[in-house]
Amino acid sequence: MLKITGTIITLNAEKYILRAINSMKCIADEIIILDSESTDSTTSIATAAGAKVYTQSFLGDGAQKKEASKYSKNKWIFSLDADEYLDKDLIDFVKNIDFNNDLYDSYSFRRKNFCGDEWVKAAGFYPDSVTRLYNKSKVNYDTRSDHAAVISNKTCKSKSHIIHNTYESMEEWVDKMNFRSTMSAQQLYKDGIKPSTIRPIIKSLFAFFKKLFIKGGIFQGKDGFRVALTTMFNAYLKYVKLNELYKKDKKSNK
Fold first, then answer.
1. Coil, helix or strand for 164?
2. pLDDT per residue over 37-53, tens digit each?
3. How, if at all, do strands 76-79 and 118-119 pair?
4. What per-residue confidence (pLDDT) applies to 206?
5. CA–CA dist 131, 149 (Å, integer)
């Protein structure tokens, strides 16, 4: 068995967690679940499946994933989201890695994002490369609240795949967009980005233009427009919520 620890951060993920764990067992000899105080059966399912379960109130996407790696017995970590699983080509690829060489500190993979049963490829949704396998003694996640990434200059770019059940429906797409935009606004606030009444409009329009024209969404049918519109709305929400954070801060300081 490869000396890899699989880490998964969770919050009310009972629908997917067993599939994620079973998938990870194909490449990992240890699986760590860092749960953000779930109120469903996520932790009991994970424990029954043989994972080691720890609890930590949510620190933000990057900080939580970095925290999960601290519990691992191995230096090589594969970070998987609860609503993802490993495609067969990825499992075969990882099993053939020679971890004795020092060419790479990390490995990235292509991600197939699904809305329900539909693989959404339009406007940059594919190949959506993400770095997930990394040597924690050399690199790790940044501590961004949202869209965190492993910071590494020596990454092997694999063409094998992670399968991501991004959204079960448009309703869930909107729900997750609301959550993600909140996390993004908090990160912008931490980064010192100042409030602006015009920025939400400018950023959202540019996001729409980028997805529709630069990323080619206009030539990709309904998926292209769906991605462009939701990306525009997400950008608008993010910067409006940033303004709200400053308003809240101003009121608390009165």
1. strand
2. 999 999 999 999 999 99
3. unpaired
4. 96
5. 7
Burial environment of residue 57 by CB neighbours within 10 A (0 to 12, 13 to 18, 19 or more) = exposed
Predicted local distance difference test score (pLDDT) of residue 150: 97
100 CA to centre of own chain? 28
Query: Is 149 within 8 Å of 129 (Cβ atoms)?
Result: no
Give me the pLDDT at residue 121, please.
Answer: 86
Which of 33 and 249 is assigned the larger pLDDT? 33
- Write the CB contacts of 132 (distance below 8 Å, at least 6 apart in sequence): 78, 79, 80, 107, 108, 109, 150, 162
CA distance 224 to 124: 9
By C-alpha distance, which of 145, 75, 87 is closest to 114? 87
Which residue intervals of 26-166 are DSSP H helices?
42-48, 61-69, 88-95
Pairing of strands 155-167, 106-115: parallel
- pTM for the model stands at 0.84
Q: What number of CA atoms fall less than 13 Å from residue 45's CA on the CB side? A: 20
What pLDDT was estimated at residue 1? 56
* Residues whose CB is less than 8 angstroms from the CB of residue 161 and which lie 6 or more positions away in sequence, other chains included: 87, 89, 90, 109, 110, 111, 112
